[in-house]
Amino acid sequence: MIAIQASAPGKIILMGEHAVLHGCPVIASSIGLYCNVWVRSHRDGLVELKLPDLEIHRFYDLLQLADYTLRVRQAWERYRSDPTSRTFEQVRGMDPDHLVKCAIGEVLLRIPPQDWHGFSLRVRSQIPLDAGFGSSGALAVTLIAALLRLFKRPEAQHPVQSLALTVERYVHGLPSGIDHNTSLRGSVVERRCDDEGGSCLTSWPAESLNLPLHALQIYHTGAARESTGQVIAATRHRLEGSDNPLLASMCRNTERFRSLLHLTRPMPEALKAVLRDYEADLEKLGVVPPAIAQVIRMIEKSGGAAKICGAGALSGDSAGALLVVGTTTLPALAGYRRIDATLGVSGLEISER
């Protein structure tokens, strides 16, 4: 029987979150926290899900998963025409294994039913949930890659990139695509709109950049109360409209950050300045809870800079990933988990035995 293993890293958005959904560039780095998926075929018509991180062990009929995904597709189409918190709830639902079921269903719906067969699937992930570390993007990439390999679907006909984006939509609504592409490619990735209204991706090996990734400190402030999709649905209107000053500031700061990546010598004070300015933009957007903003003020007072990485949060005392530069450890950071993981690591790896 065929056994597949797939592994992909999480990600951190270095600059450009939220603004990317309105046409601005975004720059992200892979991070050495991994999602691992194991798939083994068997002859019956059932799917066995083992998700020990979520304390889930369930069995599903193949047709049941395909029907579930068709209903989610319909809900997403309604959300696309009316992107609100209410319509997003109908897409995301409350099932903790929602993404896994949708990934399986999307693969099945691209395969003739006579080629379907059962399998067992196990997932273990080091990537924190609802925290800006790209947990769903890495999961979508590993699931899709492993299942396409299991069912012997050629990459040319069923690209992992496009299928993973489809699945991400069922978790985030209208994602930019930077999360799963960074997990897929690894290294540092930029997404930028092109002249034809589409987008292009550029990958840079970490060692080719002037930014010393090892000098960036990453902290986990705790999972956000709201999912990424909920935060985006609640705040996207604040960046809409022509000549939106907040969006213009976020775009400008992302371009400043990009230029710092390619300078011939480090400019630490300029880096701190652009981080402070983008953090101020995120606070105006309303995705940095007061408790996190207070810690960031302490970091700035000590001579450093910090910003939320990812969607942030609308309420509570946690907002996921926090990027810190230019300061020694402060007592205010002692309550957060330091993420000692390498940035700019390689992307998706898959093997078969």
UniProtKB/TrEMBL annotation:
Key words of the record: ATP-binding, Cytoplasm, Kinase, Lipid biosynthesis, Lipid metabolism, Magnesium, Nucleotide-binding, Transferase
Keyword Cell membrane among UniProt keywords: no
Top-level taxonomic group: Bacteria
Biological process annotations from GO: isopentenyl diphosphate biosynthetic process, mevalonate pathway
Pfam families: GHMP_kinases_N
Keyword Hydrolase assigned: no
Sequence ranges assigned to domain GHMP kinase N-terminal in this UniProt record: 99-180
Coiled coil: none
GO-annotated cellular components: cytosol
GO molecular function: ATP binding; mevalonate kinase activity
Pathway membership: Isoprenoid biosynthesis; isopentenyl diphosphate biosynthesis via mevalonate pathway; isopentenyl diphosphate from (R)-mevalonate: step 1/3
Name of the protein in question: GHMP kinase N-terminal domain-containing protein
Upper classification of the organism: Bacteria, Pseudomonadati, Pseudomonadota, Gammaproteobacteria, Pseudomonadales
